[in-house]
């Protein structure tokens, strides 16, 4: 008897005119995908390491950067207080996903994360894992910097000289780097006293 009842429900659900038509939902935006990821990571859904990394953002954050940079890659930079994070986004067809692979390594050269500097007039990073050409973008407080690159045998140094020293207070740097099908992002904050 249960089989007949289930079959009857399936037949009714498949029969048409009484059911409302479903419309295709647009794919979530990169910001929406990142927001869902941040909340899931902060809740421990992706393990203890990502939980600790994203816990400061569980109660909200300010988006510093949200940009498609090159090909299928984009970057989202977020801040809450002095905590900052960068997330690589990858578009697969029509769907944006968080890309956690990060085969490229980004190391801040200056100012250092958490530093309290008297004067800052340059921001610089080293990107390891780029062989040949790639793309690197520096953002300072959400603004794209006019950066330059110096290629070495195993890495590239990306830097931006600022027109004037930075104002006193807290500042955030977001970096995105890409080479072929590899991408990475990194963020940190520092202050000028």
Question: How would you explain this protein's 3D organization?
Answer:
This protein is of the alpha+beta class. Helix content is 17%, strand content 45%. The protein has helices at 2-14, 30-42, 48-54; strands at 62-70, 73-80, 83-92, 95-98, 105-110, 116-117, 122-128, 135-140, 143-144, 148-151, 155-161, 169-179, 182-192. Helix 2 (30-42) crosses helix 3. The longest helix is centred in the N-terminal third of the chain and has 13 residues, at 2-14.
Strand content: over 45%
Order of helices and strands: HHHEEEEEEEEEEEEE
Helix content: 10-25%
The helix count comes to: 3
Spatial order of the strands forming the largest sheet: 6-13-12-8-9
Unreliable parts: 1-17
Distance between the amino and carboxyl termini: 78 Å
Rg: 22 Å
User: What is the overall pLDDT average?
Assistant: 88
Note the main sheet. Answer: 5 strands, mixed
Shape: globular
User: Structural class of the helices, strands and pairings?
Assistant: alpha+beta
